[in-house]
Design a protein that fits this description.
The structure is a homodimer. With about 600 residues, the first copy, chain A, is of the alpha/beta class. Chain A is built from 21 helices and 16 strands. Chains A and B meet through helix 9, helix 14, helix 15, helix 16 and helix 17 of A and helix 9, helix 14, helix 15, helix 16 and helix 17 of B.
């Protein structure tokens, strides 16, 4: 993998980066105009990564960086060893956790049956070749969550880290977490992550889903997809694996991930009962949650809002229940004619998550799967239950975000975020799109990117990406990139609309480069420099074209920006002169009752 | 070119298509599940094309069709002969136009210099090989515009045609045109078009730009791009050619186009003075407008709002003037220190356009070219002038629409449409995007698709597409398709949000097919069936997969929709039974105070 691909949304830092590692592309061998740098906090082991883009006019622009150590040429990464545990000392230093033997890894964790022939059992020591480690949890089962610390008024290194990243004060971070308006997903068993925050007062975040399935793909592919997604700007990654080797795939992903990892434990639990929903039990689910918490999963989607009473509300829907977790729980509820075991055992689940600082992502199992089903009774009945569960989770100091739709036409989008914020006490909203029409399979990154930008502007904290393969197939490497880029566009467009401090500086820097024909700067500042450069070269390949004061759209005679610049040159020279000169003439012109006036250049 | 590509947005017809031509793909040789059909009006020569998609469940869905005769296997098209002039009898029948010798075609019309060597002069008879024709204009220079007829209370065949197309009454069409809230671009010299309407009460329309440039591309390519764009759903096409052979390229495009063609006459006028803006004169411009009106251009972008007084307002902008036409006029104004000749001669221009029924597209020459410049003084000063010009045009019975931006962050978009509607007496707004961020060159179809969907929801009547090559290069065939598809998504999402009658029936049909695993129906109903099918086959190539009750995302065990269907099957069988059964149980459940209830299947 090459480093030159990475780009992430803008967050201009106050602190001056203390250290820059000269960057060279491992692919092309030529520098591509940016350096990996770090902003140091109040302690030497608190170093916030940023990407510094160096412009040909001597200025530089600092961008938010999710790509992890992989883009630092001074760091020697090895997927078989995993990333270094940068948070380990912070976690140990708090002295409120303990190591313990942990739950033994069983063949069925990887979907291998007890009845499997001897040869069918893999050597479980090989789950991950990296350094052996024992899981960690809150001593005496106490809550070791960022929420608990925030409510106690403590500013953790994690909070300081995200404060530097978001260019706000650590106190603002603490307040937002304490109020439940933001979450900082950071399992004590995932010390490798670079902390990030999800909340409406901060930059809009993007999640990328990966995961092998019963049908296709491998462990290596998933690890590669994870690093690829973060390279393009994914802030978190969900591992939705459903096939074999779920446990092992997750271990590899976690040990190599610089971003928080989310999962849906229900998927693995269902594998353990051979996909027979009715055979699921609270014990199997609980065991799976502990298994994943010990591995270091940072947030878990829990469909505890799918209650028995709501299933009938989906009967006259056009597309029924389209959430996998939701349909599994609905099937279980109906098969047993019992209330959801997730709903019934929710408090016990809170105690478990609090001991590892696993963040809840309360799933919207009844989200609409079509325009026709948007904002219906089933969807909002579940949302009200999620509000109730959010308050319970808060009692246990468990960080919580709420998942949202889905398929929603534009005029029904705002009601979703407004209701969620009201019902869920402003807990972070985490939406899938929404898709604004059903008619464009193969383009649902776009149908949903439209809804995503709008709902993020109105307050959604994190957007779950949708790839071009949605509804059709499993995303490949290109689909993951397209999905992430599309959602970084939606997220940044929302940051601009929300007036996030510093967000527009990125646009301004690129537009300056565009107006001044600094093509290389325009490419290097682009969300996807490679494709921008490639598209330009398709029409004007020659190197001189990169300094030409026109481009292939209009050619030299018609370039509006060139004419625009000529106007300035011919009528006053410097930008300031022309401004004053023109402004002055403009006044005279108006005063003269809009009659023709004398030359500006006089 | 194959027919199987065509897809356009939904508009369900009242009338039953009278005639269907069995369709077979010229490429794959297999039927792809739709037929070209026609809805006949009150006269035999008034036949509105529609696309009927035939579903495997026996139902059919009727979609709006912009693809012209090219997708009718019963019509033998030949680009060297051009399309048959279906409006000719309607135009002649009105008896208010006359044929005349017309302006002789000169070498400089194609950018060939008087000074060019004898060999340099092409045989001008070969401008277009099709049937010779004389231009037509209003007798005694009278206004022969759809606006003039509408105000007189006349419902023309063109109005009836669009009424059938939009599934509204002809009277609604007449009223909207008479009020200036809609335009029906239809030059009397472009009888080949299938009439369409642009107005906020109707389906949102999409324009695709084509055109060769000084740098690259040929006549054949442009004709091909036009038919390709309309095949994917472009409602109008603008020929923005700037290089040589402008006149000839335009002739070929017009004679073969089933949709209205727009141009920016200023580009060709500038070619006639070798690109020296200061050498432009009203006479040269006027001659060019007449040249193009005689060829049949249906609407023309006129940058008459760029007044001398406004140029200084752009001086302290981040990206100055980014409209080509705008910068050309600004350069002219400053060079001569005179008011714009377009503004000064606007009434004379109205008389010319009225005689051919050329529709004004009043250009926004001062539109913002960056987020920083959005909604600034220069932009809105010009808009106020466009409002003034719109009222003048109306006095001359010239149909008029207003062009809009550009680069605008989401929170500043609504002000654009609201102000335009107020200042321009609800004249149709025709916007370029807007782009909601500057940071994603190579993805500006997406940055702008977001803004386009929003502004169309709020009342914009037509969207000018943006391709992935925007800011970088000239769009190729794939870019044109991507741009059109992206904008059809934005337009349809807006139709849904506006509650356009019938719009959701398309989404519902596709979602039904999706929920019932009718894969072929899902593909055939998709905006881009080819890509949808291709993406599906990438993961599950086998033919059986197309009838499988699961897909590659989750595999058989996890398919939520399958589980959803199983729930229905197991608990009541038919959809109706389950609805009643579940609803009943739901009541009991609520009544019983949310305690577990008895089996639904009892």
């Amino acid at each position: 993998m090459t480093n030159k691909d990475a780009r992430t949304p803008a967050s201009v830092q106050d602190g001056t980066p203390l250290e820059t590692a000269p960057h060279t592309s491992q692919e092309a061998g030529k520098s591509i105009g940016w350096h990996k740098a770090y902003v140091e906090g109040t302690r030497p082991d608190l170093r916030v990564p940023v990407r510094q883009v160096h412009l040909t006019n001597g200025q530089s622009v600092t961008l938010y960086d999710t790509s992890g150590p992989y883009t630092d040429p001074l760091v020697d990464t090895d997927v078989r060893r995993g990333l270094s545990p940068l948070r380990e000392n912070w976690i140990i230093g708090r002295g409120d956790t303990e190591e313990y033997a942990g739950r033994p890894v069983r063949p069925e964790d990887d979907g291998i049956k007890h009845t499997a022939p001897r040869g069918g059992l893999r050597n479980l020591d090989a789950v991950f070749p990296g350094r052996p480690r024992q899981p960690r949890r809150g001593r005496d089962g106490r809550a070791v969550t960022q929420l608990a610390y925030a409510r106690r008024g403590e500013i953790t290194p994690e909070m300081e880290f995200v404060a530097l990243r978001e260019n706000v004060s650590p106190e603002v971070v603490r307040e937002e977490i304490a109020a439940g308006r933001a979450v900082l997903p950071a399992n004590v068993n995932h010390p490798e992550i670079e902390p990030m925050i999800i909340g409406k007062r901060f930059l809009v975040k993007v999640n990328a889903n990966i995961g092998n399935s019963a049908v296709t793909s491998s462990i290596e592919e998933e690890v590669e997809k994870m690093t690829w997604a973060t390279r393009w700007g994914a802030d978190t990654v969900m591992d939705l694996s459903t096939g074999r080797n779920i446990h092992t795939t997750r271990e590899w992903v976690l040990r190599n991930s610089p971003v928080p990892i989310g999962t849906v434990p229900l998927y693995q639990a269902l594998e353990k009962v051979d996909g027979r929903a009715e055979e699921l039990t609270w014990e199997i689910y609980k065991d799976t949650v502990i298994e994943q918490a010990e591995q270091g999963v940072d947030y878990m989607t829990v469909h505890a809002g799918v209650r028995l009473a709501y299933v009938p509300l989906t009967a006259n829907r056009k597309t029924g229940i389209v959430s996998r977790g939701g349909s599994i729980m609905a099937a279980w509820c109906l098969a047993h004619h019992k209330e959801s075991f997730l709903y019934e055992h929710f408090e016990e689940l809170c105690e478990i998550l609090a001991a590892y600082d696993v963040t809840y992502s309360l799933g919207d199992g009844l989200r609409p799967g079509s325009i026709a089903d948007a904002n219906d009774e089933a969807q909002f009945a579940e949302l009200r239950t999620l509000g109730e569960l959010n308050r319970i989770a808060r009692r246990f100091d468990v960080q919580t975000m709420i998942e949202g739709p889905g398929h929603v036409p534009m005029h029904k989008i705002k009601e979703n975020i407004d209701l969620q914020q009201e019902i869920c006490d402003e807990a972070p909203f985490y939406t899938l799109g929404p898709l604004t029409t059903d008619v464009a399979p193969a383009y649902d990154h776009i149908t949903s990117g439209i809804g995503a930008a709008m709902i993020a502007w109105w307050g959604t904290a994190m957007l779950c990406y949708v790839t071009p393969k949605e509804h059709l197939g499993l995303p490949n490497r290109d689909d993951v990139k397209t999905g992430v880029i599309t959602y970084k566009i939606a997220a940044h467009a929302a940051d601009l609309a929300k007036g996030h401090p510093g967000a527009q500086e990125w646009d301004d820097a690129l537009s300056d480069a565009r107006f001044e024909f600094r093509w290389e700067d325009q490419f290097n500042l682009a969300l996807d420099p490679d494709t921008a450069r490639e598209f330009h070269d398709e029409t004007l390949p020659a190197e001189p074209a990169k300094t030409a004061h026109f481009c292939s759209m209009c050619g030299p005679k018609f370039c509006s920006m060139k004419i625009s610049q000529d106007i300035r040159r011919e009528h006053g020279g410097s930008r300031t002169e022309i401004e004053e000169g023109m402004a002055q003439k403009s006044k005279e012109f108006a005063a003269a009752g809009n009659r023709v006036y004398l030359p500006l250049a006089d």
